[in-house]
Predict the structure.
Amino acid sequence: MKAKRLVFTRRQTVALEEFDPGEPGDDEVLVSTRYSLMSTGTENIVFNRLFAPDTHWDRWVKYPFYPGYTSVGVVAEAGSGVASLRRGDRVAFRIGHRSHHVAKASECYPIPDAVPFPEAAWFSLAKIAFHGARAARYTLGDSVLVIGAGPIGQMSIRWAHAAGLRSILVVDSVPDRMPLARAGGATEAIVSPVGRAREAVLAGNHGRLPRVVSDATGNAEVFAAALGLAADRGTVVILGDTGDPAGQHLTGDVITRGLTIVGAHDVHDTPEWNNATIAKLFFELAAGGRFPLAGLNTHFFEPAQCGEAYATANRDRAKTMGIVFDWTGGASGGA
């Protein structure tokens, strides 16, 4: 069969090409994509090559490059040895932007009927933020400041809320992001550059700095300010993966106030918490109304509009949240 997928052929150039996805083996399924979610942070860095030489980004990004890692759809065909899935099952899978794909059945995660496809597509970004929450070691009544109310920041807010934190502060210079942050559980939404947010953070957290600061921006320049906003003996979680880690500089806060700095990344899986188990928890919480996703998708594009989709992600970053490719042919955001 002829399928279609997005490809970066060179810097700042994206195309829609045909390919043959192949036939599923005994333990595999052929999945038909309904929607795929752009990871605007990762994909903008890759699309624009916004990374330094000799970084892990530089070693990873080679052409042709096939972007994306968060898709949802249905099982179109199951291999003879697959008992867990059948044709028509709604599943999530960590595949790039493409119409069809052959995947291991064990790598396709069932989606509850209560979760619409476009909202379910957030499962991969939620997983990244989950690792940030684990690194923060949240406890009931804890406090966190999330820097950046973009997609990863929004997921971080929701995990903090699900974990029972007393204070969930978010700071971002884009006011339009704050209603979504509050809908996700933020107790205080501070519209400000992070370097000028200290007094508002103190006011929003009962006169104290938060125990945890989570930098979800991927902006190397934010790191120094993040260190200054954590409480004494607090923890700073680096969740946004910058393309220029050499630009992240320590301050005297680390030594004088005894801070802990910990990185969190998509690859930090364990036998207990991994793609499958985190997706299951995410879908259970979303289906039960404990992980609100409504309104997060702001832009829908058909795959043939991929050039405009990435132009929008670059040109109007402050006005976008979830940028979704609609592989159904409708570009309407259906269930």
Q: What stands out?
A: The first helix runs from residue 40 to 48. The chain has a mean pLDDT of 96.
